[in-house]
Amino acid sequence: MNFDKNSISRKRKELTSASTMVGNKAGVSFLRVLFLSLVALTVILICLGLGAFKGIIDNTPDISQVNIVPSGYATFIYDAEGNQIQKLTGKEANRMSVSIADIPEHMQHAIVAIEDERFYKHNGIDIRGIFRAFAIGITNGFSFTQGGSTITQQLLKNNVFTDWMEEGELDRFKRKFQEWYLALQLESYLTNQGQNAKDVILENYLNTINFGSGNYGIQAAAQGYFGKDAKDLTLSECATLAAIPQAPTKWNPKNYPENNVIRRQDVLDEMLDQGYITQAEYDEALADTEDVYARIQTQAATEPELNIYSYFIDATIEQAAADLMEEKGYTEVQAYNALYSGGLRIYTTQDQNIQRIMDEEYANPENFPNGLEFSLDWALTVDKANGEVVNYSREMMRKYYRENGDPEFDFLFNSQEEAVAAVDAYKGVVMQEGDSIRAERISFAPQPQSSMTIIDQKTGYVKGIIGGRGEKTANLALNRATDSTRQPGSTFKIVSTYGPALDYSNKTLATTYVDEPYTYQNGTPVRNWNNAYNGDTTIRYAIQQSINVVAVKCLTEITPKLGYDYLLDLGFEHLVDQEVINGQVFSDIGQPMALGGLTYGVTNLELTAAYAAIANKGLYTEPTFYTKILDKDGNIVIDKTQKTKQVFKESTAYLLTSAMQDVITSGTGTNLKLSNMTVAGKTGTTTNYTDEWFAGFTPYYTCSIWSGYDSNESLPSGTYRNYHQTIWRNVMERIHAGLEDVGFEAPASVKQATICSKSGLLAGKGCPSITEYFEAATIPTTRCTQHYVAPTATPTPTPEKDEEEDNQTKPTAAPTKTPTQAPTAAPTQAPTQAPTQAPTQAPTQAPESPDSGEG
């Protein structure tokens, strides 16, 4: 290296030359700009970050508006005495809230020890836990499987940020910041409100989390796995349950006890290490390991595989849902969500004793005819080999069989095996090689069927209901008492014709009509059940003997429109004013309505409620299955207010009742007599014996029963046509055991009068007379004279002559004599005894049914 003077001078010149100075300045400037840019970028990023963070925080729910209480609570249904009879749960709704005071400390400590050991020390978020989770994630190749979430954060995630399962990465990042922020605020907010923040958070958390097997919350878990309340759990059971929430399927102690036992050990270890339990308690819990899982399996064995509701519960659910929509403005979805996951308390009108008796009588095969048959309900969906999806229905099956050798095919089989064989044969026809079954539905119902409803007429409360015979296999399925509309036959005469006639048209039970051959206005004959006619017939006798001609004549006179209006007031909802069906006009406002000839028919519940109005002095009360609905906190959601209407005058109701007592004592319903209670009611049979009915009441309860085939087949002769009467009598005898027979009391507006049984006028000399009840204003004022026989004049004595003259002049008229035989009409008697006038024509054949209404 040359360090002489010239070299040094030359070097100095190079360094101080203009070009060198420019280059140096440029380099310094570049570095300065780069530094400033980096500073600016950092500031910008910080500002953006702060702005973004502020935006995230600004979009965080207001802590004062945050609801950490879990949703999705089980609904409970109670009987009339307040006893729980059903629990309704939807998906993620089998939850029952309990307070922290009813959660054992062992349960509280177990969940804290295994899930958030610093719970009682942090203020909502655990910084140490967050850094630990971050470090473990880095170590595992940036796989962040541990979130460091506290119990407070998990509570917020489950009950506030409820859509976290569907969020993306950016949303997850945003939610995590909001979760931290709210966790800090929540604990501070609760403390400032004077509450124990940790107790509030832990209570709601333990009422929220999923414990597997459809059990949400600690109370449901305690009942589901051990059949006990949460407050009664042991340390061993608490540790078993605390092991579940991290992975409810994996750690499920019922389905995977071999997995749960591993995590249960971890729970007990953590509780011991953190000082929550002693060594002795630890050892005792370990010693219970085998028994605790045995208890879980024992409890599981006691639970039915399917929770099938009764017909009464089905009807309660449907009525409650309808009321929630009408009174609270809920949509249908909202109403059913509230019922299955709203934690409601529904108090029903069901009398468990009455319902039990009904169930027992319907389960007794001796009450039903021999020769049990089964009806088939079936549907099939097939994936065809060519990719097409084809649906097959029972109607398509019926069409196939009727067109291929069995024109009477009706889905009635002598056994379930026979029905399955018919299904398999049809599937063999419609399915080809390469086809596969996507879905198939098949169910059976015993036939003939029946339904029954019992109402307390004074309140309108439904006390018991039967929606069908046989095992119930589905929830909210066909309920023949509330859903099925059937032709009511002659039971309808009372409510459609005679009630309005007595109430509005000044008719009386003594009003007479000529029972004779008669036709509807369209020329169709009206037939009596016995094909006989009685001549002059009172309304009382027409009710007693169910005479069709009189009913149709009476309705024609008062007008079908009047009868129709009364029926609407009595709560019948399936009547048709005018409706076009397949191009044909239908209307129920016509003569056939007298005999129950309707477009759609009525339900058992509707008919029972209408008869209950008669039993309740003419006051119709809307039938109800429940009295009130409360929320889980005991606040009233619906206080059931039933609609009421005075449809018949009290006098009308009593007159109808009196006439219907005759149906039981000496008419078509003598098989319905009870040994321990007075009964009034009316029989009903539809054309071809498709439907058999009896609607009747006592001083306490109104009960209607229907029997028939679901498929509208005719009931065979014999016991098929009267087994419903046996069931009605058996049920009503039992539910009235021990009750006083107080009878039916006549109101002050009803008076008695002796009348001619033929004309209905006040009885005159020579009249066949009976004593009848009248509404006071309708007592006849005219006396009958048509049976009066004028006395024969007595001849004046003449002077005696010889015998020949005397013989020539002897009067030829026969002397008047007193009748030696009483008239055929019954003498004056109690009005519950029917007139005994004999029919003018004897039946040509013994009837198979006591009553057959046209329609």
From TrEMBL:
One of its GO terms (molecular function) is peptidoglycan glycosyltransferase activity. Residues 452-700 form the Penicillin-binding protein transpeptidase domain. Its main location: membrane. The chain crosses the membrane at residues 30-53. GO terms for cellular component: outer membrane-bounded periplasmic space; plasma membrane. The keyword Signal does not apply. Keywords: Antibiotic resistance, Carboxypeptidase, Cell shape, Cell wall biogenesis/degradation, Glycosyltransferase, Hydrolase, Membrane, Multifunctional enzyme, Peptidoglycan synthesis, Protease, Signal-anchor, Transferase, Transmembrane, Transmembrane helix. Residues 788-855 are annotated as: Disordered. Its EC number is 2.4.99.28, 3.4.16.4. Residues 82-271 form the Glycosyl transferase family domain. Residues 809-847 have a biased composition (Low complexity). The keyword Translocase does not apply. Pfam families: Transgly, Transpeptidase. It is found in: Cell membrane. One of its GO terms (biological process) is cell wall organization. It is a single-pass type II membrane protein. It comes from the Bacteria. It catalyses: Preferential cleavage: (Ac)2-L-Lys-D-Ala-|-D-Ala. Also transpeptidation of peptidyl-alanyl moieties that are N-acyl substituents of D-alanine; [GlcNAc-(1->4)-Mur2Ac(oyl-L-Ala-gamma-D-Glu-L-Lys-D-Ala-D-Ala)](n)-di-trans,octa-cis-undecaprenyl diphosphate + beta-D-GlcNAc-(1->4)-Mur2Ac(oyl-L-Ala-gamma-D-Glu-L-Lys-D-Ala-D-Ala)-di-trans,octa-cis-undecaprenyl diphosphate = [GlcNAc-(1->4)-Mur2Ac(oyl-L-Ala-gamma-D-Glu-L-Lys-D-Ala-D-Ala)](n+1)-di-trans,octa-cis-undecaprenyl diphosphate + di-trans,octa-cis-undecaprenyl diphosphate + H(+). In the C-terminal section; belongs to the transpeptidase family. PANTHER family: BINDING PROTEIN TRANSPEPTIDASE, PUTATIVE-RELATED, PENICILLIN-BINDING PROTEIN 1A. NCBIfam families: PBP_1a_fam. This is Penicillin-binding protein 1A. The lineage of its organism: Bacteria, Bacillati, Bacillota, Clostridia, Lachnospirales.
